[in-house]
Amino acid sequence: MCPDCKNPNGEFMEDFANGDMICRDCGLVVGDRIVDVRSEWRNFADSGDDPSRASRVNDWLPSGGLATEIAKLPTGPNGQNNGQGGGGKMSQWQRRIQLSQGDQNLLSGFDKITHIAEILVLPQKIKNKAKELYSSFESKRNKSMRCKKDSIVAAIIYMACKEEGVPRTFKEISKETEISEKEIRKYYRALNKILPKGTGRTSASDLVNRFCSKLKLSNEIMNLATDIANKAAAFLEGKSPSSIAAASILLATKLQGEKRWEKDIAAAASISPTTIRNVFKELLPHQESILPEGYRPLQNATA
């Protein structure tokens, strides 16, 4: 009972921030130095509400990543830590002292994977798959093998995208990372020799969905273009998946009577309009073999 208002049914409120117990009716501070006995939750998830008492095990580190970690302080617009001390330096030294050289190499690679994946706006499942592949690569590669970390990470992200069913082209990754397409291809070939075989080469039909989404085309056109691309590859040996996908989309839009400029489709596929025209011309003679039932071949069609 509150000694001031003496309300027999009065309620008290615990203010843990100040350590006070307060009467809800009259506001009298009945007690002070109240101890907060609740659990000290902290959110360790990348997003969403996922409170935990401790951080999660890192499945891709040999040690599991179980250790005390000094967090980096938030930085200002110029990279300064707003006068709050050297959290960044302490974090670096703590990582060097506490983690093995192998774990340090893995964490450095994981940081690069996260950075490139964010530039490419890739979902969390791609980041996780890329980290899994990178961990496997580090454990299986010949330690005398020299490689550029940025390039190997770019190749691993390409492989992760393909294996998770959201493929990106070499050209797209090269453009966003400023790593040459030739360099990414080189390390991708090396990865295929070291890591278990995945889903194989990216097919044209894998790319149709994303290109159609960029062009804001209907599901009907997307499904038609996918059917065309699945069959067209057999008649267009040596052509890149991007060019086959783009030519299939161009043919599908013409069959559906929807006008789309070659330059728009070329921009979505990151190839030149000339390439689309050439592949489209090679595609036309095979219409009877590649078109689904119910569609009539175009007559005297031009790109």
Automatic annotation (TrEMBL):
InterPro entries: Cyclin-like_dom, Cyclin-like_sf, TFIIB, TFIIB_CS, TFIIB_cyclin, Znf_TFIIB. Keywords: Metal-binding, Repeat, Transcription, Transcription regulation, Zinc, Zinc-finger. One of its GO terms (biological process) is transcription preinitiation complex assembly. Residues 1-31 form the TFIIB-type domain. PROSITE patterns: TFIIB, ZF_TFIIB. GO terms for molecular function: RNA polymerase II general transcription initiation factor activity; TBP-class protein binding; zinc ion binding. The keyword Metal-binding applies. One of its GO terms (cellular component) is nucleus. Gene3D superfamilies: 1.10.472.170, Cyclin-like (1.10.472.10). SUPFAM superfamilies: Cyclin-like (SSF47954), Zinc beta-ribbon (SSF57783). Residues 72-92 are annotated as: Disordered. Belongs to the TFIIB family. This is Transcription initiation factor IIB. It comes from Acanthamoeba castellanii (strain ATCC 30010 / Neff).
